[in-house]
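Structure first, sequence second, as always.
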């Protein structure tokens, strides 16, 4: 499965920064990726934090590993947490 990767940086409620990738099927729009990002922020207690095209930028396309493909099949997207997400 070919996917689009969106590099995302969000300031948390405590002022610290979160860095994560939003990974979606290649045919999904940037707006849909942002919607998924907002869903993820809500799930980690960061709802209400700004997430626009300024914080979430298209990075690249790649072939998805099996675990990412499975998550996308189940949820529609995959979040790859990198910094400050926990």
């Amino acid at each position: 499965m070919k996917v689009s990767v969106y590099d995302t940086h969000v300031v948390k409620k405590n002022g610290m920064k979160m860095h994560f990738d939003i990974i979606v099927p290649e045919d999904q729009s940037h707006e849909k990726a942002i919607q998924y990002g907002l869903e993820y922020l809500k799930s980690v207690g960061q709802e209400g934090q700004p997430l626009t095209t300024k914080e979430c930028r298209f990075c690249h396309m790649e072939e998805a590993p099996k675990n990412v493909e499975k998550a996308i099949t189940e949820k529609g997207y995959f979040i790859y947490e990198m910094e400050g997400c926990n």
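Margin note: The chain has one domain: 2-83.
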